[in-house]
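hiii so um. not sure if this is the right channel but i have a protein structure encoded as tokens and i wanna go backwards to a sequence. like what aa goes where. can anyone help
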């Protein structure tokens, strides 16, 4: 993780009145916690209790948002981050790619908005778009399949 990403996490904490944030991505783990002197004692909000349990799955298997490919001869283009998926650069513009279109390595295929930043997602594979796995303007998770691509 770089300094820009850490600053974005701090801004996210401040905007949402969070006191603690823990993120794990690509083998790196960061935990940000406000000191008790910075936490306002005049506002008392009950915090819901969340429990996450691991069932001993491998990291690739544990990613439930992914959509398995129809067969082993296809590749997935997955979201590198949590955010909102957009097929086009603006509401009036045509989508970056359509089903049946051949994409090249490095070609922009969509945008994922994360913390008010528009991140262009580029294809890491060459092939024909077989399926768009997410609806426009839908939230996506890290590692979630966005497109299924058949090598050409």
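sure thing!! here u go:
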């Amino acid at each position: 993780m770089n300094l820009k990403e850490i600053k974005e996490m701090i801004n996210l904490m401040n905007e949402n009145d969070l006191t603690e944030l823990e993120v794990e991505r690509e083998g790196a783990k960061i935990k940000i916690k406000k000191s008790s002197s910075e936490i306002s004692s005049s506002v008392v909000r009950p915090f819901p209790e969340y429990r996450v349990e691991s069932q001993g799955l491998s990291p690739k298997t544990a990613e439930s948002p992914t959509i398995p490919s129809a067969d082993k001869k296809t590749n997935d283009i997955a979201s590198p981050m949590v955010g909102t998926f957009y097929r086009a650069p603006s509401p009036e513009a045509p989508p970056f790619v359509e089903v049946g279109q051949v994409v090249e390595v490095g070609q922009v295929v969509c945008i994922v908005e994360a913390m008010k930043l528009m991140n262009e997602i580029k294809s890491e594979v060459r092939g024909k778009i077989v399926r768009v796995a997410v609806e426009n303007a839908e939230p996506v998770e890290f590692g979630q399949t966005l497109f299924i691509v058949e090598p050409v």
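oh and The two ends are 34 Å apart (CA to CA).
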